[in-house]
């Protein structure tokens, strides 16, 4: 099991970097990273998102950081539990400011009402079939108020509360919430699964999904420990991460 000291030690602050995930991954391969290390930057120029998308963030206004973890006592096939714990720690942090309308959207986003507030990208370092490290990238909209073509799809903490924040201080506060979530994961994984479902975006509501050229409506019923979303329409179906995507009107 990974050591249980506080996450965010050491805390590396960079003025600018292409990608905090790339920086952290390089540190792991060079043997310079340790469990709990955080890489934070004020300006990420080539941030990563899911499905090879980029994560756009204005300089100095948001949280862009990556956390290095030694994997807990889980098989690589159970890696989604780590994603669940990360999402819950992030959700608890954001909800402390934005309230209970903060939800976890499968598989890796944080939503406030129907707008995206944050995203998670986990990249695993695997050597000879052994799970060596998890690089957990987190991007959170803090003070940004203009999102271009995503204006109606994104939201920041400042837009919700009307308050300007210091992203660096909030990033350090986030580490405390993540530490608590990972501690629960190590001791009681079943509680992580239950809490994830409790805060799941659109649970028991009808959503529109797309698989290839097929677009269909279904009710979100569950997310399994392996990361499959369970939906119900004429039949029950399960989809792994990457098999379907959300369609918004």
TrEMBL record:
According to the UniProt entry, its GO molecular function terms are: biotin--[biotin carboxyl-carrier protein] ligase activity
Q: Where is the BPL/LPL catalytic domain?
A: 6-186
Cellular component aspect of the GO annotation = cytoplasm
EC number of this enzyme? 6.3.4.15
The enzyme class is: ligase
Spell out the InterPro entries in the cross-references: aa-tRNA-synth_II/BPL/LPL, Biotin_CoA_COase_ligase, BPL_LPL_catalytic
What keywords would UniProt list here?
A: Ligase
Query: Which NCBIfam families does the record associate with it?
Result: birA_ligase
* Protein's name according to its UniProt entry: Biotin--[acetyl-CoA-carboxylase] ligase
Q: Which organism is this entry from?
A: Flavisolibacter ginsenosidimutans
What phylogenetic lineage does the species belong to? Bacteria, Pseudomonadati, Bacteroidota, Chitinophagia, Chitinophagales
């Amino acid at each position: 099991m990974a050591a249980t000291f506080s996450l965010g030690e050491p805390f590396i602050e960079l003025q600018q970097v292409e990608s905090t995930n790339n920086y952290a991954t390089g540190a792991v391969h060079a043997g310079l990273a340790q469990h709990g290390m955080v890489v934070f930057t004020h300006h990420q120029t080539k941030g990563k998102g899911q499905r090879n998308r980029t994560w756009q963030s204005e300089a100095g206004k948001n949280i862009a950081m990556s956390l290095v973890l030694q994997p807990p006592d889980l098989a690589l096939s159970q890696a989604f539990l780590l994603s669940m714990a990360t999402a819950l720690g992030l959700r608890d942090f954001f909800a402390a400011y934005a309230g209970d309308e903060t939800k976890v959207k499968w598989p890796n986003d944080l939503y406030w009402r129907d707008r995206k507030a944050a995203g998670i990208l986990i990249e695993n370092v695997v050597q000879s079939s052994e799970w060596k490290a998890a690089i957990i990238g987190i991007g959170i909209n803090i003070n940004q108020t203009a999102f271009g073509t995503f204006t109606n799809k994104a939201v920041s903490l400042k837009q919700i509360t009307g308050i300007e924040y210091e992203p660096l201080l909030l990033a350090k506060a986030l580490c405390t919430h993540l530490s608590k979530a990972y501690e629960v994961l190590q001791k009681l994984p079943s509680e992580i699964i239950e809490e994830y479902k409790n805060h799941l975006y659109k649970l028991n509501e009808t959503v529109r999904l797309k698989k290839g050229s097929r677009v269909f409506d279904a009710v979100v019923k569950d997310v399994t420990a392996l990361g499959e979303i369970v939906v119900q329409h004429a039949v029950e179906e399960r989809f792994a991460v990457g098999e379907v995507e959300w369609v918004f009107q």
